[in-house]
Amino acid sequence: MTTESARKKLEKLKPMLNSCSIKTARVGQDMLGVISSVGKKESCEKLEFPNFTCGVITPETVKDKNSALIYIHGGGYVAGGFGYAKAYAMYLSEKTGLKTFFPAYRLAPENKCPDAVKDCVKAYKYIVESLEYDPKRIILIGESAGGGLIYSLCAALKKLSLPLPLGLIAISPWTDLTMSGQSYKENAEIDPSMSMERLKFFAENYTVDPKDPLASPLFGDLSELPPSLIVSGGDEIMLSDAVSLHEKLIKVGSPSRHHIEKGLWHAYPLYHLTDVSDAVITDFIKELLQ
């Protein structure tokens, strides 16, 4: 898929999603999963929990059986299920040669904040305690809402005095549900995949308090976290969330680096448009696991 064709497909979807229902939002998220899907041969299993399912992708050739990725999907907390998450989890596993877990956490408005966080905690604890993966060999990857969730998950782990993972990769993270950053205005017209109206709708369905640190980790304690890689598109409406997250991480002493790809939009790595984004992410994973 070329950058131009991907942009055109997303631009066609954007008007439909500006004032959509939850049902339409979920259909639209599934459509994005189809657009970003690439055919892979890795096997997929399911771990069943009382309230949700966690997928497990095992690559054909496992490069490091002691290490794993946990991918937490986006969708504004109201959309994106097992099938949507599976598409990028498959890709990550194939590119890295690592087993990749992906919790299909409970969605809003049926399940409000912090239910999604609780589900991610359960999946993480199971991977660490029951499957006996060393947290220092686990990397969290989250996209959009999932990019915020990986930090909310770490906050919850800290509160429970549980060990943190080796590193964090946040792709276009949604970290400020108050949407106070300048990019929400500056990039409103040029981001083909996201709008203020859509995000406000999602936030209202997810939480009654958009400043709750478990919903907006930008307002939480980001100290003593493992190294972060933040990846953003220069045209995306939520760029300010990533910039502010990076700046706050550095300020409180948590290692962070921020890669911005000019001319691209929200969550662009999921569309496999440039080898640069793949290299930035896979090189960071290799660096952490060496």
Fraction of residues in β-strands: 15-25%
Q: Mind telling me the C-alpha Rg?
A: 17 Å
Q: Give the biggest beta sheet.
A: 8 strands, mixed
Shape: globular
What is the average per-residue confidence, as pLDDT, rounded to a whole number?
93
- Quaternary state of this entry equals single chain
| Structural domain tally | 1
Q: Helix-strand pattern, N to C? A: HHEEEHEHEHEHHEHEH
Number of helices: 9
Distance between the termini: 32 Å
Q: What is the percent of helical residues? A: 40-55%
CATH structural fold name: Rossmann fold
Structural class: alpha/beta
Q: If strands are numbered along the chain, what order do they take across the biggest sheet?
A: 1-2-4-3-5-6-7-8
Q: Please report the first level of CATH classification, the CATH class.
A: Alpha Beta
Unreliable stretches (pLDDT < 50, length at least 5) are none
CATH superfamily: Alpha/Beta hydrolase fold, catalytic domain
CATH architecture: 3-Layer(aba) Sandwich
Number of strands: 8
Describe what this molecule looks like in 3D.
The chain is of the alpha/beta class and 290 residues long. The protein has one domain: Rossmann fold (3-Layer(aba) Sandwich), CATH 3.40.50.1820. Helices cover 41% and strands 16% of the residues. The chain contains nine helices and eight strands. The chain has an eight-stranded mixed sheet with strand order 1-2-4-3-5-6-7-8, with helices on both faces. Strand 3, helix 3 and strand 4 form a beta-alpha-beta unit. Helix 1 packs antiparallel against helix 2 and helix 4 packs across helix 5. The relative contact order is 0.14. The model has no long low-confidence stretch (mean pLDDT 93).
